[in-house]
Description:
Elements: E1 16-20, H1 27-44, E2 48-51, H2 70-84, E3 88-91, H3 95-102, E4 107-110, H4 118-126, E5 130-134, H5 144-153, E6 159-163, E7 166-167, E8 173-174, H6 179-184, E9 190-193, E10 199-200, E11 209-210, H7 215-224, E12 229-235, E13 249-250, H8 254-269
Parallel strand pairs: 1-2, 1-12, 2-3, 3-4, 4-5, 5-6, 6-9, 9-12, 12-13
Antiparallel strand pairs: 7-8, 10-11
Helix pairs in contact: 1-2, 1-8, 3-4, 4-5, 7-8
Enzyme class: transferase
EC number: 2.5.1.55
Family: Belongs to the KdsA family.
Amino acid sequence: MISVPKLKHSATTNFFLIAGPCAIEGEAIAMEIAERVGEITDKLGIPYIFKGSYRKANRSRVDSFTGIGDEKALEILAKVGQRFDLPTTTDIHAEPEAALAAQYVDVLQIPAFLCRQTDLLIAAAQTGKVVNIKKGQFLSPEAMAFARQKVLDSGNDQVWLTERGVTFGYTDLVVDFRGIPVMRAMGSPVIMDCTHSLQQPNQTTGVTGGKPALIETIARAAIAVGADGLFMETHPDPASAKSDAANMLPLDRLESILTRLLRIRAAIQD
């Protein structure tokens, strides 16, 4: 099982969950989401890591929401971890951000577009934190062995790999579920990003679209082929979210979906 400070239910054989809003919009909404997801995962015995981006660096338009301020958002992430005794994660985009974010969170996430950036991977590895590398939309699963090796060669063996779909044409993504066992065979836990894999990027409006109604479909298939963890962005009112509104799962649907996914997990372990 994965090893992260403050991770509850780690002795179970359940998948683990990384979930939270796309971006930290403010303290109240972050606390609401963390509290509710924490209650659900405690009830179901699912190890849970709270996720929130302290800054969104990759946006389609210059007027898109990027954050409420780095220090302010990172402090909210730290407060979430302290208040609910949860591990937390956020993404980083450049080498100096690794040491900064590592002061506040337990897992550093490398965005898919940056998964080949050697200096970024080394900087993340050198913090001693878990490094979760999202597979680029442009890479084969086999190619992630090289990104993973950069972290290992930097003296950090705490590496996770996340599948998030492959670019299909100009405005869509598809998921090749063969990639999950391929990456698991490398020796690292593999996570399925059930929200970003349903994005429809490069829309003419400059606002990314998505198909959130298929989140459970992606999650079911991922669990069936052996994914160790799931990544889901969730929000009480996705339509009002300041980032990735078209992709997030309504928070009130999370418990029922996770309950059904646990049945699949139990079935494949029989």
